[in-house]
């Protein structure tokens, strides 16, 4: 696997780990509210839903991290699957929540997927 592809996959995993932390642990804090544009009241109301979303982001990060240490051809399959999941989630999030999600999540995953596919 190329170094560029590995770095991009790792970057997407780190992004989703950070999102997990924001959604599960920092949601009600000023930092979490600023990241998602919520008021304290909204954050309180949505905290359980945000934590659930954070858990799913953790699964994406975990799958991508695992893909960096698994042997081939399993590693390739994990990379393609989890990066495709991130892209689909990013497109859906951009369509339903904020276009910023397209840049923050889907674009890095698409670049990583392209790099992974080019290593084949």
Verbal overview:
It is a single chain. The protein is an all-alpha fold. It has helices at 3-24, 30-36, 40-67, 74-96, 100-118. The radius of gyration is 15 Å and the shape is elongated. The N and C termini lie close together (8 Å). The mean pLDDT is 96.
Q: Residue ranges: pLDDT <50 for 5 or more in a row?
A: none
Largest sheet: none
How many E strands?
Answer: 0
Cα(first) to Cα(last) distance is 8 Å
Radius of gyration over all CA atoms, rounded: 15 Å
Measured by DSSP, the beta-strand proportion falls in: under 5%
From N to C, what is the helix and strand string? HHHHH
Key words describing this protein structure:
120 residues, mainly alpha, 82% helix, elongated
Any chance you could write out the topology, listing elements then pairs?
Elements: H1 3-24, H2 30-36, H3 40-67, H4 74-96, H5 100-118
What's the gist of this structure?
The chain has 5 helices and no strands.
